[in-house]
Amino acid sequence: MEKSDQRLGVGQAILAYSIWGLFPVFFKLFENVPILEVASHRVVWCVPLLLLILLARGQMASLLAALRHGKAMAMLLLSSAMIAANWLIYIYAVTSENVVAASLGYFLNPLLNVLLGYLFLSERLSKIQLAAVILAGIGVAFLAAGALDTLWISISLAFSFAFYGLIRKIAPVESLPGLTIETAILLPPALGYAIWIFYSGPGTGWGSDAGMSGLLIFSAVVTAIPLLLFGSAARKIGYGTIGFIQYIGPTLQFLLGMLIYKEPLNVSQIACFALIWCALILFSRDAWQRYKQSAAAAV
């Protein structure tokens, strides 16, 4: 991998996670809309948007090649299930005033990425990284003891997105065609539900007013852009490096939940956050030292 590609991958990852960190601001606008309707419209409008981008970039041949690749399609079927579950749980967390719980899930993600990179991608796990993973595990144990009502949100978000990223990293398909196929797989049930809920009676979502309908369409843009950036970055840089960059998103979400939306913090959440932050500091220090050693070796 060329150094320029690695730098581009790092930049793409930083931008993707910054956008995800600000997601609560956008999805708070859908507090009165059923979460399944919001998720279904994200899919429905993503498909034509991604097809237009594919046409503009001349990548339709890559899409057709992926459709004929049995292994790629099997992996994309699995990744589409992972991202659908992640979307549903995240929208529920934001609209039910559990932004802090959602941010905790994404704080766990970097350390889970490191562990998955070690288990499935043969990426080396240093003693410091192992210590960071153990600290995070202790933090989750604290959370389990005192915040069982929101624990499932944090754990589900962490695991669904970690495995989504792992699958997309190893799937033999480029980021844009892969994301197009993922959303196309989800299109039939999403479109069916969107049509059903529209004709089932007056609602608060699509058709309730022009502004809300416009927001549901725009959800495709805020969905597709960071996923495209992430999918491209995952193929350029190490999965452990992605895990390091990933803490940008949950930090922004945590600050929004605590400072803007005034969500309360209990003792178990504070203990869990403290341990995970210690783990992230350990991981960041180790990653920085490895980067300096690599740069010195290159020189």
Overview of this protein structure:
This protein has 299 residues and is mainly alpha-helical. The chain has one domain. The chain contains 13 helices and no strands. It has helices at 3-21, 23-27, 35-57, 60-67, 70-95, 99-120, 127-146, 148-170, 175-199, 210-234, 239-245, 248-260, 267-298. α5 (70-95) packs across α9 (175-199) and α7 packs antiparallel against α13. The longest helix has 32 residues, at 267-298. The model has no long low-confidence stretch (mean pLDDT 83).
Beta-strand portion reads under 5%
Rg, alpha carbons: 19 Å
Derived from helix and strand composition plus strand pairing, the structural class reads mainly alpha
Q: Residue share in helices?
A: over 70%
SSE sequence, one letter per element:
HHHHHHHHHHHHH
Q: What is the straight-line distance between the termini?
A: 17 Å
Morphology: globular
Largest sheet: none
Domain count: the total is 1
The average pLDDT is 83
Count of DSSP H/I helices:
13
Number of strands: 0
Contiguous low-pLDDT stretches (5 residues minimum) are none
Write the layout of secondary structure elements.
Layout: H1 3-21, H2 23-27, H3 35-57, H4 60-67, H5 70-95, H6 99-120, H7 127-146, H8 148-170, H9 175-199, H10 210-234, H11 239-245, H12 248-260, H13 267-298
